[in-house]
Write a structure and sequence with these properties.
Length: about 280
């Protein structure tokens, strides 16, 4: 029985991925920072007669990652599939967002993934096989929206390092996939680093407008089960491209971004945003 370790499983794509892997007979280690939040996952697993283990794992903590991986390897003999799903969101202007909050996004979305990768690789190399699925975002493949630069940067960095990692570990029989989901009805926004703009913040109105757009655009988000199935497929199919987008309109969005310059893309995006959130506020 193959063992999969997934990060960020308390809700959304991670929760659905844990169930999808379990249905296929994997030994599922569905980790999260606080296992007390595993109620929804465990209830659904019990309802389907599925076996899911919930270890504590905080991707921002070296000791937590090392301990969780060591425990899984000791109990099950190794991690066959690693799914780096844990992530946080951040909406805010480049100038105004406190650097501490900006760093927190990179700490989870980029460094957090690298911590788990580095922890499982010795075992994967020694066995001569393994799969690493890094869950990035469509935002890393299109264009960064206003106030979305820090989130997109963290996910773009994950995509770039996945390319280097793939070439480095392929000779050891380890495969890497960077899955880039579009908009899904997850709870990543609940994990956002939130700043409190001051009354004289020159970006406050524009940021609020962008948050309104993101909220309304998210009302048509896809079902996380689709993204979960894509993760399982990526883990099982050796022909999966390193960069794999998933979600309604995702391929079209990537193709347009690839063919259009930023100057062409931005007016079209702002037009779409205003259609959902109303006119963009004028600069104070």
């Amino acid at each position: 029985m193959a063992t999969v370790l997934i990060t960020g499983c308390s809700s959304g794509i991670g929760l659905e991925a844990a169930l999808s892997f379990a249905r296929r007979g994997y030994q599922v280690c569905a980790s999260m920072r606080d296992p007390a939040r595993a109620g929804a996952l465990l209830d659904r697993a019990r309802g389907e007669g599925l076996d899911v283990e919930v270890p504590a794992l905080d991707v921002t903590d070296d000791a937590s990652v090392a301990a969780a991986v060591a425990a899984v390897e000791s109990r099950y003999g190794g991690v066959d599939v690693l799914v780096n799903n844990a992530g946080v969101d951040c909406t805010g202007a480049v100038e105004a967002t406190p650097l501490q909050q900006a760093r927190a996004v990179m700490e989870t979305n980029y460094w957090g993934a690298l911590r788990t990768v580095r922890a499982v690789l010795p075992g994967m190399r020694s066995r001569g096989n393994g799969v690493i699925v890094n869950v990035s975002s469509l935002a890393a493949r299109t264009r960064a929206v206003p106030h979305g630069g820090f989130y997109a940067s963290s996910k773009a960095a994950l995509g770039v390092v996945s390319e280097a990692l793939s070439a480095e570990v392929a000779p050891f029989g380890v495969r890497v996939v960077c899955l880039e989901p579009g908009s899904y009805a997850s709870r990543i926004h609940d994990n956002a680093t939130v700043r409190q703009p001051s009354q004289d913040d020159p970006y406050a109105a524009d940021e609020a407008w962008m948050k309104t757009f993101l909220s309304r655009a998210g009302e048509g988000a896809g079902d996380c089960r689709e993204a979960a199935e894509a993760i399982v497929a990526a883990a099982e199919d050796p022909a999966t491209p390193l960069h794999t987008v998933v979600g309604p309109g995702a391929e079209a969005a990537v193709e347009f971004a690839r063919g259009a310059g930023y100057e062409e893309w931005l007016p079209l995006f702002l037009q779409q945003a205003e259609a959902l959130a109303g006119p963009r506020p004028a600069a104070p």
